[in-house]
Amino acid sequence: MTAPAARAEAAFREAFGRDPEGVWAAPGRINLIGEHTDYNDGFVLPFALPHTLTAAAARRGDGLLRLRSLQSGGGAVEIPVAELEPGAVSGWAAYPAGSVWALREAGRPVGGMDLLVDSAIPTGAGLSSSAALTCATVLAATALHGRAPDRWEVARTAQRAENDFVGMPCGLLDQSAVLLSAEGRALFLDVRSLETEQVPFAPEAHGLSVLTVDTRAPHRLVGGMYAERRRACEHAARVLGVPFLRDVPAEGLADALAALDDPVVRRRVRHVVTENARVLEAVALLRDGRIREIGPLLTASHASLRDDYEVSVPEVDTAVEAALSAGALGARITGGGFGGCVIALVEADRAEACAEEVRAAYAAAGFALPAFFRAAPSPGARRLPSSGA
To answer: CA-CA distances (angstroms) from residue 262 to 237, 239, 243, 268, 372?
Structure first.
């Protein structure tokens, strides 16, 4: 039994007075490149983190859903499965409750359940702790209450929980990364076709590290800014007469921009089209083992997210600029933006010096000190060996 499984089992027993029937783990994720392209039917290139969320669960015969988190404090959130509907549950518990609701709405047999959550994924850092929570819940609920669905059905169900229950209009990037990632690989996903490729990405084998900076800037996406950008993209697609912005080719970008009157919408379109091109170029380089050459693409992605998509904040820009000045091969914001994390591709022996440069820049700017870790591509969601398995 793994240490996370043992900890989750022990906490479940203390919380609910009985043994769980199983424990599931779901990782956080880093998006190497391909930001805000998923809901535009485009291309993304994420990988899973070693940081995981664990969910210990057991069935109930009375139709009651009881939810407990070691990180949230307080007692269990309780609601009958039959009474689940958008708005019925708030806070962290809306994500697992929404997952059960989405299964019920899809006609999946799902009954009462006790669920205890323990997470090592930094919250509010843009590392998809919410997708890990919804995916782990769907995996647990379907394993306990019927035939386990395929991974794409899990991803779609988890996405619906966020879209329709929580009210976060996210695309499919996060759920795909949580469920489909592999160790030593980045997941190249065509969101339209759902075709995937496990692209070799093992920085340490090349003497490199992906230094991740948790900027500690607040990371809030449900408040409307994310939704506004999605609406702008959908509006632009209608004006341009294409299903999604993915259908605007890079060589046709100038004509597309000329057809749009709103300068803000033009900037949003320019980001999406150029970001899709950057993903394809990064994948080609990684296939050839030319990992260092993706650095400039990361930096160009950040400039586009900062200037055209306008999702950066001062703490993020400071971290990117400091990392580059310390010799990083490339650096960018990762995740939806408005806070969260920065990734920097650095020579492994320069990682600490790069972190020191970021700390100094933060101190000079009067920001709260950031946190750091090195991100290694890791396995996706899975059931853990446990005494209840």
So the answer is: 13, 11, 19, 10, 39
Active-site pick, 38, 41, 114, 174? 174
pLDDT tens-digit profile of 288-324?
Answer: 999 999 999 999 999 999 999 999 999 999 999 999 9
- Dihedral angle, C-alpha 3, 335, 170, 144, nearest 10 °: -10
- Catalytic, 174? Answer yes
Residue 300: both structure tokens together: 């160009």
Neighbours of 385 (CB within 10 A): 12
Measured distance CA(298)–CA(344) in Å, rounded: 8
d(CA 260, CA 266): 6
Written as six digits, the tokens of 129 are 């702790």
* pTM for the full predicted model: 0.92
Residue 14: exposed, middle, or buried by beta-carbon count in 10 A (0-12, 13-18, 19+)? Answer: exposed
* Token duo for residue 332: 């960018």
pLDDT tens digits, residue range 52-103? 999 999 999 999 999 999 998 778 999 999 999 999 999 999 999 999 999 9
Helices assigned H by DSSP within the chain: 3-16, 94-105, 129-145, 151-160, 173-180, 225-240, 253-258, 263-287, 295-307, 314-325, 351-365
42 in Cβ contact with 34 (< 8 Å) = yes
Q: How far is residue 18 CA from its own chain's centroid? A: 32
